[in-house]
Request: fold
Amino acid sequence: MKQETIINTEKALYDYIELLRSNFDEHKYLRVDMKTGKQRTGLQNRSLHLYCGQLAGMFNNDGLTFTAFFKEGFELSWTPEIVKDNIWRTVQLAMTGEDSTTKPKTSDYPKIYEVVNRKLASLGYGLEWPNKDR
Reply:
């Protein structure tokens, strides 16, 4: 059984200890994978989606299409999801080993952005990371 639990309160910690104790009593064997470090913030999540949407808009405005590799000649307009899945996630996976955008630490996001933005800026598509003020 694979189960992920986020423990960020004393009650959550107590509940998890009880879950561990119950499972150990039943199975007499546990394997626990523990990670520390806070994942992306809500602001980072909103900023990522806004950033991907802004990039998709820039690409579409310039007449660029996303050519899907699975069928020759099949072209799609850019969407925020295509940007996230094919640009952001590719760099993120290479840098962090994490496939899900929910998994990198908050400190990973600026590093991933810098790599993505450096490449896109070299192609004329540099874009500031959105924040509360933009």
